## 1
Amino acid sequence: MAAQHGPFIWYEYTSADPDRAADFYAPVIGWTMSDFSQPGMPYRIFNAPDGGVGGLATLREGGRKGWLGYVQVKSVDETVAACQAAGGGLVEPAMDIPGVGRMAILSDPGGAVLAIMTPLSEERWTPDGMASRGHCGWHELYAREGGEAFSFYAGLFGWTEARTMDMGQYGVYRIFAQDGHDIGGMMTMMPGSPAPLWNFYFQVDGIAAASGRAAERGAKTIMGPHQVPGGGWVIQMLDPEGVAFALLSMNP
């Protein structure tokens, strides 16, 4: 079976306090936790009702705290070369993870960071999974310059522009697709924003209930909740470590 190229397949949170992160995200999103630690490398899995969707790692000295999305590619080494040729950077070089696959961590020309992976598993990504509780339902990039970022990722992963939305003072919002399915949006970040970054919208059982659980556990609201085109409800928040995340539900 040929490897897929371009879908998001994993989401990893690196924390200075993994126990606190687990105690926050598991009840907020409805995940359960399981251990996948290796000698000298503690690691836990965030599980949705139908299986693992992400991992929880411990922050290393000099490492980067927060959420990291993984995109599946046919060849990690060829994608690294294409990234650098297009003006992107290499944050962590290609490496093999025994029993998992080969990966690297890249940055786009504006500095936003993503991981790439060619997994050993032949399990295939399907867009229906994005609509399931506990999974990531939307991927949003706040770029240094939205048009430049889209051109970069389109060349790297084959993403296509589904349509654009004029957001007035907020600029152009580009909805991008993977194999004909809308999976996210990109826009130029607002003046005063600290840095370009990817934000991930996790599916929950109701925006009010889930954001209430988050607030009770120390999260702060950035924007929302509000309804978006298509009928869903979203809220953007900062977790207790000050890391951005977002929630998505078809129910208010």
Note: The first helix runs from residue 18 to 30.
## 2
Amino acid sequence: MTEVLSQAEIDALLDAISSGEMNAEELKKEEMERKVKSYDFKRALRFSKDQIRTLTRIHENYARLLTTYFSAQLRTFVQISVASVDQLPYEEFIRSIPKMTILNIFEAEPLEGRMVMEINPNIAYAMLERLLGGQGVAPNKVGALTEIETTIMERIFSRALYNFAEAWKTVIEIEPELDLLEVNPQFMQIVSPNETVAVISFSTKIGETTGMINLCLPHVVLEPLMVKLSAHYWLSTQKKVRNEHEMQILEERVRTAKLPVIAELGTSAISVGEFLHLTVGDVIQLEQRTEDMVKVRVGQKTKYLARPGTSRGRAAVSIENVLEEEVEEDE
């Protein structure tokens, strides 16, 4: 990861240059020299930048879904957004989380292996207090969960996994299921310590309480999907899904479109003068005979041949023949 200096470090660097403790020309010379970058094999980079960007897009959508879900469940202001997406050894992830926290260990068939959603105690207990009728303020001291509190936690986070499946459906159809709720990271060993994991950190705010939700996805679990996590595949899949959705909408609209269906008893040709002098009681002789079948038009095309009659006291036609090809009427 690229190191970003804090404001204090920037101020200290500028002071050192101003006081003469550090020479700017030497810094430029050092920058121009060829640098050798050390590689730590324990921190093997298994995810490409392209795949990290795809994971970011997927979980930005997941963050929006979680915001909607928790807002409805807690009935208070909830804001969740992706803070970072990193890859690091599993052992380092375990060391980075509190000694007492909420760990939701889950599986997602057809993927093989387990994943973890870690909820910072401030956020977890604020949710718990809100669900039990409180204001949603995190307690000063975090203790062990009671059986009732554990059941409530399992219920709310099990439902949150439904949104996880929704966020991933553009890549794969999965069925996440909560396997275990743990509070001590030392008792959670889902992969080997040196296994690379993708850690998606969500910045979370519930009312006035802030904290982090971390999603740990081991590389060994996502390995069958690595090809699908490329931007080219992901975008082409998105386009395919969008096209299929548009085709479904178009098909539904075509099915519900209304077309004029006209049964034509016969035709006749008269002059304009004869038309102008028509009066009540005049008879117009048709060119068709009574035994001829009636042409049935759908729109401007003749599609059926039928015989006239009545049905329940109303004029009707009985379809006798379906024309294999559309027949255009002569103008």
Note: The longest strand covers residues 314-328.
## 3
Amino acid sequence: MGAYLLRRLLLIIPTLIGIMLVNFTLTQFVPGGPIEQIVARVQGEGDVFRNIAGGGDAGQGASTERYAGAQGLPPEFIAELEREFGFDKPPVQRFLSMLWDYLRFDFGESWFRSISVVDLVIEKMPVSITLGLWSTLLAYLISIPLGIRKAVRDGTPFDTWTSSAVIVGYAIPGFLFAVLLMVLFAGGSYWQIFPLRGLTSDNWETLSAWGKVKDYLWHITLPVIASTIASFATLTLLTKNSFLDEINKQYVMTARAKGLAERRVLYGHVFRNAMLIVIAGFPSLFLGVFFGSSILIETIFSLDGLGRLGFEAAVQRDYPVIFGTLYVFGLMGLLVGILSDLTYVLVDPRIDFESRAG
């Protein structure tokens, strides 16, 4: 197992480099970069800026021709922007410099927020972790009992209509379900039961400890339900199929032949083996909910988390935030993959990845 883990850890380095290289290359061809963003803002200043900068046709030089809308701006201004953002260096040098900084977890500062990327991620992360953790726990609390029930009553009308409901739930995109929840329960057109946006109320600081807990749960209910819908469906079917596979094995027939009660057979023997894949998949499911739904759900419910941060950084072409969060997320995903393998081994010591790798 030690050699297998060492290989997996060593593979993280080339995998991360590949992820960063692909995304860095793509950004070289995407229009509307950070300099274009600033040029657009400056052009909004109109003649005021041109008078300050010297006006006239000074901006018709070669330095401005590369940037759409830069006509009328002095080439010295564009050159200064290039130096400030590091675009005066060749792409290869910029990429290698970025990798060296990221290996030391030096992600620099946001170009448009005047705050370090690390501090920005730490500030936004609790919201996304909260959303992902509650959604994953809710999915497990609902899916495991429902999946077991469906396996025990396989082929019955209960199994049929619950499967239909699960498939419909899986087919509905999380963001569309979030909009539906807002329309129904957040004052859209029907009931004003839950708040429309945010994670806390305006009077949060004045609430008691118990009041803060209730206020927090009140705000997080709709986002968590919207994030849970897809993972709930997948986990339910996974639990059912895992139980069906175990129920039909020889040791279950032997236990029944010995006269053991059905409940003891189900929860004393089948449950432990059937839950191996479900329990071991917890890290991956959490990461999937954490990354998969956070952008749209956080945007719809105005939650200031990592998903919304990434969306705003992409719109603004804030490359330090984009690449910094991409590096962190990629590293987390690779480490969670290793953690999932370790969880499999802890839950079932019979699993030997070393022999499989050989």
Note: The mean pLDDT is 76.
## 4
Amino acid sequence: MRQDKPGVLLVNLGTPDAPTTPAVKRYLKQFLSDKRVVDTPRWLWWPILNGVILPIRSPRVSKLYASVWMKEGSPLMVFSQRQRHALAAKLDIPVELGMSYGNPSLKSAVDSLMAQGVTRLIVLPLYPQFSCSTVAAVWDGLSSVFAGYRSMPDVHFIRDYAEHPAYIAALKASVERSFAQHGKPDLLVMSYHGIPQRFANEGDDYPQRCRDTTEALTRALGLSDSEVMMTFQSRFGREPWLTPYTDETMRGLPAKGVRHIQIMSPGFSSDCLETLEEISEQNREFFMHAGGEKFEYIPALNDDAEHIDMMLALVNAHR
């Protein structure tokens, strides 16, 4: 009889191996070559990517990574590894971490789990809100890995957890800690990573999943709609992305009488370049320069105990 042995694969986006131009260039090339991320026809995109974007962006982005790099490494990698260790400590089954881009690769994580005799694979992409550009890319990556196997395990794929009670409870606790420390702001801003508006028009339900999280957290906190705002950050390229844009919002809020804001990025399970540099530094500067008086960034859930308990609940539901 086939023995049932579950195992867990945590997946996040990935990060360069070092805050250097060559490492960032390797990472960006893999990331921006994925058709889930950029679906421009290859014949048009490839010369632009290799001839313009990578040579120009890699040196600049490497400096940004250097500004947030931790002693142990890239913040996203450090926190993702802490999450893996903390979850593994609560489980009696194998837990591995793989990245869609960069190291450790999805293949290395799957190879390790298969070598440990896993027959039922529980895949938890660490993206609270589904998007074709993130969660579906994990599905594609796994399909590519298993294309090289003669056998494969039962796969339990967790699509997302935008409204999961344990996720909302963990976010609520983090906001309440910030309010207790800094006082209640005029406005709580929830900034999510953007996607092209075209993706949503073509069926990606990511915007709705972001609204689901925002509405659930607003209710849990007992806030009114006027005390909360949802925005989208990190747009790339020239086509329209989801609005309102976070950076433009930051520049405009003080003129509307908003002097104190607290901002969080509920779509990021780990702090990374997009939260520590783009939100906490760049957007702080936009807000304060426009006349704002107080700006606090509420960290991602990272390896908070409530966050690990949520992961445990999701995994146990599939055991």
Note: Residues 42-68 form the longest helix (27 residues).
